[in-house]
Design a protein that fits this description.
heterodimer; A: Alpha-D-Glucose-1,6-Bisphosphate, Chain A, domain 4; seven-stranded antiparallel sheet; 42% strand; B: mainly alpha; elongated
Chain lengths: 166, 120
């Protein structure tokens, strides 16, 4: 049951870019490049500290413009695998500005939301072009159930799942 | 690999769920199949409006229609819900937007890469 959740609870996105593999690698590992694309719309990456080696830490500061003013968010993590131009794996947790991880409930995330997630980037050199597969997975924590998109949706899915005999 | 198709369907699933009437229709169908008339009964909207909502749900793969011409009862297909109800799927649109921006940024860099023979 938990295995099932762990394997299913990931986003996998495959993309091809019209750029050499070395440049795509820099998109993830060079703070100046990273800042240009990473921030969600309406957000600015103010800090990108990246010690890109196995065991090295990373700290991302994000400024989000809200109607109530500027909101600063921090994400900290550690590099797990670093194979230049091929494979990058790092963890990510919400944190304070010093990189101390916050617990999911502290920051108002729903129960069952993983406190730490893992981002895996796999690159393939297609000769001037690059194939990228990004996997963002929850690192399973104590809570067995994956958090729902909304409570209502969860309830509905559970209800339907229980009834379904197909 | 059917990744692209899956992503398209997920977008449709999200769009279909982004409406309280349609979520209410799904909740009703969770109790069992129903005709369009039965589905419309609790709502203060017209039958064509309900039909429109059902069509959106059908396209998203959340509702199946029976083949009997007269009634064409609606039934729920929960399979797409299993995919969106994980936390991870909340992040999909965020990542997609990021990679769109990465693509745009790479395009901006291209003239420099071509003309500048250096490695900056």
């Amino acid at each position: 049951m938990t295995d099932n959740n762990a394997s299913q609870d990931a986003v996998v996105i495959e993309r091809s870019f019209d750029a050499p593999v070395g440049l795509i690698w820099q998109m993830w590992t060079d703070p100046e490049h990273f800042k240009k694309w990473y921030g969600p719309d309406g957000a600015t990456i103010s800090v990108a500290n990246m010690d890109v080696r196995v065991g090295g830490t990373r700290l991302i500061g994000m400024e989000v413009h809200t109607p109530n003013g500027l909101m600063q968010m921090w994400f900290a993590g550690e590099y797990r695998e670093v194979v230049e131009n091929e494979r990058l794996v790092y963890t990510e947790s919400m944190s304070d500005e010093n990189g101390n991880a916050s617990s999911p409930s502290d920051i108002g995330m729903p129960d069952g939301h993983p406190g730490t997630t893992e981002v895996r980037v796999e690159l393939e050199d297609l000769g001037g072009r690059t194939k990228m597969v990004m996997t963002h997975a929850g690192v399973p924590r104590d809570s067995p159930g994956a958090a729902g998109w909304t409570m209502a949706l969860d309830k509905l899915a559970a209800y339907v799942g229980a009834r379904s005999t197909r | 690999m059917t990744l692209a198709i899956d992503e398209d369907r997920l977008s449709e699933t999200f769009a279909a769920l982004a409406n309280s009437t349609r979520r209410a229709i799904l909740a009703r169908l969770a109790e069992g199949a129903a005709t369009v008339n039965e589905l419309a009964a609790p709502f203060e909207v017209t039958l064509p409006a309900i039909s429109k909502h059902i069509k959106v749900l059908e396209r998203a793969g959340l509702v199946l229609r029976g083949q009997r011409a007269q009634y064409r009862p609606c039934a729920l297909d929960a399979a797409p819900l299993a995919e969106v109800s994980t936390w991870a799927e909340q992040y999909r649109p965020v990542w997609e937007a990021r990679f769109d921006r990465m693509d745009d940024y790479l395009t901006q860099l291209r003239p420099q890469r071509k003309t500048g023979a250096g490695d900056d």
